[in-house]
Design goal:
Residues 5-65 form the HTH tetR-type domain. 68% of the residues lie in helices and 0% in strands. The protein is an all-alpha fold. It is elongated.
Length: 192
């Protein structure tokens, strides 16, 4: 066995390679240990089960997608440009995620599926907060477009639902939605 210490990150990287190259069914604690020439027990120190390993891969996916924190993008960036950047970032990573990971998540036990949902919710809240921040920073958007029915929060939730729908249908382009945003958020400003 290899005497060199293997890190959690190295194991996670190798696990992702196995999943994206060979499929989820080829991923196992044993296969991961063999690739690193370490004991199975060493892998279990980092990932107590295959489910924990799969959840770590999913979390790592979300972290990779948002490596540059969306809340720290330029405050000078128009909201529509911000939307397009986030959308393209998701498109870049979504094909592998939707085709390889989501289709194979049935291997998770019910309590692990719940953990996965909670993790997804955590990142969706992060995205939602980033969108709200970007919306508030865009000085071209006149405050009068918002009211108690048409709130920024509800607008962002609606927009995220549309984004997920577009990604699920594998629309690689967000020009239509961006055009809607331009017309809704900016064109009326000229009339005021």
């Amino acid at each position: 066995m290899n005497k060199v210490v293997t890190t959690r990150e190295e194991l996670l990287h190798t696990a992702q390679e196995i999943v994206f190259q060979d499929g989820m069914d080829k991923l196992s604690i044993r296969a991961l240990a063999k690739k690193h020439d370490i004991s199975v027990g060493a892998v279990y120190n980092y990932f107590p089960s295959k489910s924990e390993l799969v959840l770590a891969i999913i979390e790592n996916f979300w972290k990779q997608v948002f490596h540059q924190d969306i809340c720290e993008m330029s405050s000078q960036l128009p909201f529509t440009e911000f939307y397009e950047i986030v959308y393209q970032r998701l498109v870049k990573h979504s094909e592998a995620f939707f085709s390889v990971l989501l289709g194979q998540l049935n291997i998770l036990k019910d309590n692990d599926k719940e953990k996965g949902k909670q993790m997804e919710q955590k990142y969706m809240i992060h995205i939602q907060n980033g969108f709200l921040y970007a919306l508030q920073q865009d000085e071209r958007i006149h405050p009068s477009i918002w009211n108690e029915v048409f709130t920024k929060e509800d607008f962002v939730c609606f927009l995220l639902e549309m984004m997920i729908n577009d990604l699920t249908h594998q629309r690689m382009d967000c020009r239509f939605t961006k055009e809607i945003l331009e017309r809704l958020l900016y064109e009326k400003q000229e009339e005021r």
